[in-house]
Design goal:
Elements lengths: L6 H4 L5 E4 L11 H7 L3 E7 L1 H11 L9 E5 L2 H5 L1 H18 L5 E6 L3 H5 L2 H12 L4 E6 L9 H12 L8 E5 L4 H14 L4 E4 L14 E5 L5 H9 L3 E2 L7 H15 L4 H26 L3 E4 L6 H10 L4 E7 L4 H11 L4 E6 L1 H11 L3 E4 L1 H9 L4 E3 H6 L4 H27 L1
The structure holds iron/sulfur cluster.
């Protein structure tokens, strides 16, 4: 049965802003999915042995594949003299590019150690780009844990990609955010069925895809953690399309409808493209929702997917929201989802983990979405948990994935129900 909610701890409130200890991976983690998406790119982390270990353990099985990321480990001796560090980095890049002619885009990724922060990676990237032009384009971004949480690595990378794009004044739709290939294909099919063929997806799969942005580019984000990339598009004169994110049947329909409206798509054509897959998604969600309806959920801040996912779970699966925490709330990006949930839950931005642990104990939700580090202690306390990072690695967007998305939340609840039944026998 659903747990009772404590009204004092879980009532609707304005956004609670917190600054304290937080428990999230750094932006280097994004490289794990970005390197699969950008087939001719290489990510060279300028960092320490800790960064190299993080990448290796996060990459898991990918380590056996031909790698498209590495860490230029700067030893303390390199870091003692900055001139040496710059030369050392140039040497590493030269070795890499002579061994790997398939690399067309090289990302220099900054990290945390104070000595690394002192290296001017932006100037290095410009210098190297000039040196290797036109064979290789070199850009830089930061994946440092001081500046980024794990999904912000993609945001920083995409911001750098957009900054580097030429100007193009043709009328086009741009979709921002790395999606699994199969999901991206589904999205493009839906848009084609609506009559929109000229779609620029960023980041581009290869450097050879003609890409430019300008004042006639209309863009929409497919991921809610792209605040810096969004701002960069606006600076480039592009026009934002606002909508709830494409999670679930309603979210996907609203997202597509916002694009249709901007491009003047005829309602009949829109309905013909969306009504079949929408109805299928609704039926599939309804089945999984039997487990979710009436159950309560609490989100720790982690991936920045929290606000749109909370909207999907409450609006389409009947879940009760307690607290929805997000590392950052970019209103221009998640505003459409936020307004659908802000009166039903405590919304918190940032983190003070000790205080939040007290609140989750007071709420005693049926399901808690959190980072890996918090899951075990919370499970030991008797709470069911879901790892936030799994949501980033799973295909969860658009109609075809809607029931799978609901299933990701239903599984831990089913498991916990079975354990309770087992222990009662
Ligand atoms: Fe650790 Fe910083 Fe390297 Fe990330 S960037 S692995 S937080 S040292």
């Amino acid at each position: 049965m659903p747990n009772d909610l404590s009204p004092s701890a879980c009532s609707a409130a304005p956004i609670l802003k917190e600054r304290g200890q937080h428990e999230v991976f750094c932006g280097l983690t994004s490289i794990i999915w970005l390197h699969r998406k950008m087939q001719d790119a290489f990510f060279l982390v300028v960092g320490s042995r800790t960064c190299a270990h993080l990448l290796q353990s996060a990459a898991g099985v990918m380590i056996f594949a031909e790698p498209r990321f590495a860490t230029a480990i700067l030893e303390e001796t390199d870091l003692a003299g900055m001139a040496d560090a710059h030369q050392e980095l140039e040497r590493v890049v030269s070795d890499l590019l002579s061994r790997r002619p398939d690399i067309k885009r090289l990302f220099l990724v900054g990290s945390c150690p104070s000595e690394v922060i002192k290296i001017d990676l932006a100037t290095m990237a410009k210098k190297l780009s000039k040196k290797y032009h036109p064979a290789v384009n070199v850009v830089n971004f930061s994946g440092s844990g001081i500046e980024t949480t794990f999904t912000q690595g993609e945001d920083a990378c995409l911001e750098a990609v957009i900054r580097d794009l030429p100007n193009d004044d043709k009328t086009q739709l741009a979709v921002l955010g790395a999606l699994p290939d199969v999901v991206q294909d589904q999205m493009l099919r839906l848009l084609t069925d609506m009559g929109i063929d000229d779609v620029l997806v960023l980041p581009q799969q290869t450097a050879g895809i003609p890409s430019g942005v300008g004042k006639n580019t209309h863009f929409i984000c497919a991921q809610p953690f792209l605040g810096a990339a969004y701002d960069e598009m606006v600076r480039r004169g592009a026009n934002a399309i606002h909508a709830p994110f494409p999670f679930g049947a309603n979210g996907t329909t609203e997202w597509l409808a916002a694009i249709a409206k901007r491009f003047g798509i005829d309602q009949n054509k829109f309905d013909a493209a969306t009504s079949g897959p929408k109805a299928r998604a609704e039926r599939a969600i309804a089945k999984v929702s039997e487990t979710l309806t009436g159950r309560s959920i609490f989100f720790f801040p982690d991936s920045q997917l929290e606000v749109p996912l909370a909207r999907f779970l409450s609006d389409e699966c009947g879940m009760k929201l307690t607290e929805v925490g997000s590392p950052y709330i970019h209103r221009a990006l998640v505003g459409e989802d936020l307004k659908l949930i802000e009166h039903n839950a405590v919304i918190s931005e940032g983190q003070d983990v000790e205080k939040q642990l007290d609140r989750v104990t007071a709420c005693n939700p049926d399901l808690t979405v959190c980072g890996l580090g918090l899951a075990n202690p919370l499970e030991a306390q008797g709470l069911s948990t879901k790892w936030a990072i799994e949501l980033v690695f799973s295909p969860i967007h658009f109609y075809e994935q809607a029931a799978d998305l609901a299933g990701l939340f239903a599984r831990p609840i089913v498991r916990s129900d079975l354990l309770k039944v087992g222990s009662a026998i």
